[in-house]
Amino acid sequence: MTAHAPKIKSVVAAFLLSLPLCPGGPALAQAGSEKSDGLLERLAEAEDAVTAGRIEREIRLEWSKSGSAAMDLLLKRGRDALEVNEVGRAIDHLTALTDHAPAFAEGWHALALAYYTDERFGPAVYALERTLALNPNHFGALRGLGAVFDQLEKPALAFDAYSRAAALRPHDEDIDAALERLNRAARGMSL
Asked: At 128, phi and psi to the nearest 5?
């Protein structure tokens, strides 16, 4: 059985490496589709938390489509591993995803969450920056940056990231509370 394991790994690796060249593969997945852009506009104008939550779920669903069944499976496996607190396994799956689909913003975002869960803040910030380079409207990545900077006691940076997330994603009580708490520390006290 061990004699076949390296061969199987080689076949799987070759398959995954060929995917970005396939029509409809992850290289063609776009963060800013017309549908997600329209949903972002509706989210910014949402009048209540229920409506905002529904629209946000639609956006996250759109962002989770890589254009490749294999890459979508790696994303699912990484997220599933995070749900059961198997962070190392999640990082393995999500690193494979970002290696094979580096233009897929949601893969980077999921990897950032795994790093944050493992309290590896430097790699988390790097992955969040990659997410935002690919999808500047990724409110989850902005919220994640706010959380990391808050954890690292960098209130001005946390405030800025949370503010940018709040502009895209209204009706988030956690962001509102963080902004209120950080306002004095980030902006300084006025006399």
From this structure: -65, -40
